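Notes to self after the Tuesday call (sharing in case useful).
The group wants a holo model before anyone commits to mutagenesis around the pocket. I volunteered. Ligand is zinc ion. Logging inputs and output together so the record is complete.
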Amino acid sequence: MVLFSEDHIQETRRRGRIEVICGSMFSGKTEELIRRLKRAKFARQRVEIFKPAIDVRYSEADVVSHDSNTISSTPIDSSASILLFTSEIDVVGIDEAQFFDSSLIEVCNQLANNGIRVIIAGLDMDFKGNPFGPMPGLCAIADEVSKVHAICVKCGQLASFSHRTVKNDKQVLLGETTEYEPLCRECYLRALEEDKEKG
Ligand SMILES: [Zn+2]
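Result:
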């Protein structure tokens, strides 16, 4: 809906809201999160990113970019800790939200009710195609949800599914983006069939 797009927000006014950016692996969720946060930062808003401490892909504190416009990122163990860090913050970014506990939903509500703009990025589905962690709840309470897509590596259509290309049944398999491929629904179903045949 163009009318309610985040592009229409007056960046200078402090107004609580919740935005969710969700999609499969390789859909550009984090890039979109960073774009919005950088823009807020240009508007001299105080911005902070939180990510789950279990996300080991990035070891540095500042993951976002290496130019002068770097946004600091704080790894945290539980979603409730976000509340401890946000007294001086206008815009809170949360990356890899699917890995957080379900309290994140209440935490985000509380932040938005306190006038903070909350922008959440995360995987909407796990590799089995099931809703991932707190993401469905976050989509429900969001003022705006943006579903972003990758490109299916088999047929070039828009992809919503993250197919795991290695045999492992754990929901959380961290750090190895090479072990997933984005697929459209049709190619995803076909890949699952092929996986079954392989055993
Ligand atoms: Zn496809």
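Two things stood out.
Residues 152, 154-155, 157, 183-184, 186-187 surround zinc ion (CB under 6 Å).
The helical segments are 29-42, 82-85, 104-113, 135-141, 185-198.
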